[in-house]
Design brief:
676 residues, alpha+beta, SH3 type barrels, Beta-clip-like, 3 domains, 6-stranded mixed β-sheet, 5-stranded antiparallel β-sheet, 12 helices, globular, binds zinc ion, methyltransferase
Length: 676
């Protein structure tokens, strides 16, 4: 009998158990003798590694799809009965056969969130595993993009390495391009549509809490904390009394110009003849206004987006608890600055706003319930309507919020998908040109190819593996550290406050010491370009962009596979540096061939407990991440490329052709997408 073919899920599971190990919580030590070699399951790659389909968000999007895995009967007291429905059809197209004739239904790898015990949501550690089980076609999931959900990107190994439906990412984090934070667990799901939000930091204002008792088995029922998201509020008959007379779209050029003029009023000079300004359109559903040409969302559900409704209302964007807003005060009938707070009762479509005043007049309320349609996220252009006495206060509040609002997203401490000891070539990547170089090492019994005396090392290459066998017994060659995947034993990975993981010295390290070879996947120019496109199309400001240029447009990518060096953070005043070296790859007859690799070397003495840092030298200026190195000479944008100081230069220049500095050009993350 022929052996049964493994299903896709079994394949993927086997792949995962084979290739992921539970690494100990930080601080963690990297074992020097790690001999894992990555193999990739063809099937999962065939599914997710196809050409990356851009999600088209926010230009073309869809309504949040209604849940068809859960049927809800509300009891009217904030609780409901839920019945799970597992259907053998695609969640998105409701068919067995997909739009491109695909018959395979993928199953979501995620788990149900919000399960409660004794009236409290269980912690991630305590909750039992309840599979989500939603099934869908790959093509259908790749098309659906509400809240900037990107199935293909999430499934990739450099993101989550799992097949996940939209119920396992936070919609609020996602639209803010915080796509690694988005997948940090502890989400609250909407009971009506395919949407979820971080329970603590991203809960939408104006959502109604709903505790749903779900029957899980024959005799098991458990309660899940869910919400009814503001998208399900009945807005028929809403009339907006008053509009904000500034464009609500981010990146509006007209508002940018007006803001500038407002900040630096010029003495009246004869005004140049100007072309008539585009007229503002008032949104029919909320207090916002917009220039039709500034609108980012052109299509919804494959139809033209309504011309008289703003993007926020078309996409049913939420405003999270904690966000600074401008809202219509029901008492004063004026637009006031406020903050969305966690509601006490939670009425659908009503946000609880705490008003922000410099000195609140006694007649003004401290907080109010305001309909969602009368609240808008604060923008710079709305400062122009501040009352004279409040302007400075509003400007300070706005500036603080603008600089800090992304900090509410959960911190991410991601580990490399697979830890490798030495580099591997990416699949289908062509090998780089090897270099014909002689073995010039003349080390003898008393010289163990130490880094400061071996001729090979002085000439910028490692010794070939047979170096030791050429010498007398008892001889060890110390000039193969990159090839052997050696890592300095005095290094460990630890969580940092602001920069994710970092590498720290656990003992005093001297200037010039070898720290670790830089290992990951070697990508040829075509593969490198492809990977950059994936990152750019994902619009993930927290992307795993760990690729570093080697030579001839070849890159070392540590996004999926990597070693300790991938956790080294940037500093504008770094204490270590990337260096380049040649490692032996093959022997043909008597000829020896070498290839380029990078390694990390201490550039200064690194005292025990200090973080090991390098200068990234980002090669593009459109960086979205701000440098948090706190060095005196910080450039704020990680573009620093350190000059070798003179002492080092002369020391390195002496032997042979000298050693090359590593090309530490790290590719830049993507440019900002229009929305938010
Ligand atoms: Zn489908
Ligand atoms: Zn799911
Ligand atoms: Zn979130
Ligand atoms: Zn919903
Ligand atoms: Zn505009
Ligand atoms: Zn609107
Ligand atoms: Zn030697
Ligand atoms: Zn040697």
């Amino acid at each position: 009998m022929a052996p049964r073919k493994r299903t896709f899920k079994e394949d993927a599971d086997a792949w995962r158990t084979e290739h992921t190990r539970d690494l100990p919580e930080a601080p963690m030590k990297f074992p020097v003798q790690d001999v894992s070699h990555p193999r990739e399951s063809n099937k999962i790659f065939a599914l997710i590694n196809k050409e990356v389909v851009p999600t088209n968000w926010p230009d073309q999007t869809f309504d949040h799809i209604a849940r068809n895995d859960l049927e809800i009967v509300e009891n009217g007291d904030g609780t409901a009965q839920g019945t799970l429905q597992k259907k053998p059809v695609c969640y998105f197209c409701k068919e067995q056969r997909g739009p491109q004739n695909d018959v395979m239904l993928l199953t979501c790898d995620g788990q149900m969130s919000g399960e409660m015990r004794d009236g409290e949501v269980m912690s991630e550690k305590d909750r039992p595993f309840r599979p989500c089980g939603i099934r869908f076609h790959r093509t259908c999931a790749s098309t659906y993009n509400a809240d900037d959900y990107n199935f293909q990107y999430a499934a990739r190994f450099e993101c989550q390495g799992k097949i996940l439906c939209p119920l396992h990412c936070c919609g609020a984090c996602n639209v803010e391009h915080q796509k690694q934070s988005a997948y940090v667990p502890m989400l609250t799901q909407c009971a009506i549509c395919l949407r979820a939000f971080h329970s603590e930091c991203c809960l939408p204002g104006g959502a109604k809490p709903l505790n749903v008792a779900i029957r899980l088995g024959r005799s098991e029922t458990s309660t899940f904390r869910m919400i009814v998201c503001p998208a399900h509020q009945d807005t028929t008959g809403t009339v907006i009394q008053k509009h904000l007379e500034s464009c609500c779209e981010a990146g509006c050029p007209i508002e940018a110009k007006k803001n500038k003029e407002f900040e630096n009023p010029k003495p009246s000079v004869p005004k140049p003849k100007k072309t008539p300004e585009e007229k503002l359109q008032q949104c029919k559903k909320c207090i916002r206004s917009f220039h039709p040409s500034c609108k980012a969302t052109k299509k919804i559900n494959n139809q033209d987006a309504p011309a008289d409704i703003c993007d926020n209302c078309v996409c049913q964007d939420t405003i999270s608890v904690g966000v600074t807003v401008i809202a219509l005060c029901p008492k004063t009938k004026k637009f006031q600055l406020g903050k969305v707070i966690r509601p006490t009762d939670g009425q659908l479509g009503m946000m609880e706003i705490k008003w922000l005043h410099k000195n609140r007049p006694a007649s003004y309320p401290e907080k109010s319930l305001v309909p969602n349609s009368e609240v808008a996220e604060m923008r710079k252009c709305y400062l122009r309507i501040a009352a004279a006495g409040q302007l400075k206060f509003w400007a300070e509040e706005f500036k603080h919020w603008d600089e800090h609002h992304l900090m509410r997203c959960p911190k991410v401490y991601k580990k490399v998908f697979l830890e490798v000891k030495t580099s591997v070539y990416a699949r289908k990547s062509k090998k780089m040109n090897t270099l014909l170089l002689p073995d010039v090492c003349k080390c003898g019994p008393n010289k163990n190819c130490e880094r400061n005396e071996c001729e090979n090392h002085m000439d910028g290459r490692e010794c070939p593996p047979h170096c030791a066998s050429k010498k007398s017994p008892g001889f060890t060659c110390n000039n193969q550290l990159i090839s052997l995947g050696y890592v300095h034993p005095g290094l460990e990975v630890r969580k940092t406050e602001e920069k994710g993981q970092g590498v720290f010295a656990t003992e005093d390290i001297k200037e010039g010491e070898f720290l670790a070879g830089v290992h990951g996947e070697i990508c040829d120019p075509i593969e490198s370009k492809k990977r950059m496109e994936v990152i750019e199309s994902a619009f993930d400001y927290q992307c795993n962009n760990y690729s570093m240029t080697l030579v001839q447009d070849y890159t070392m990518d540590m996004g999926k596979y990597g070693n300790i060096t991938r956790y080294v953070n940037h500093s504008c005043d770094p204490n270590s540096e990337l260096m380049m070296d040649y490692v032996f790859v093959e022997q043909r007859g008597k000829k020896l061939f070498w290839e380029s690799r990078c390694y990390l070397e201490a550039r200064k003495d690194i005292p025990k407990g200090t973080e090991v840092t390098i200068a990234y030298g980002f090669d593009r200026k459109n960086l979205m991440i701000d440098c948090k190195c706190r060095a005196d000479n910080c450039t704020q944008d990680m573009s620093t490329k350190p000059e070798l100081d003179k002492k080092v230069k002369t020391k390195k220049a002496k032997p042979g052709k000298g050693r090359k500095r590593g090309a530490q050009t790290v590719n830049a993350p993507p440019a900002k997408k229009a929305k938010k």
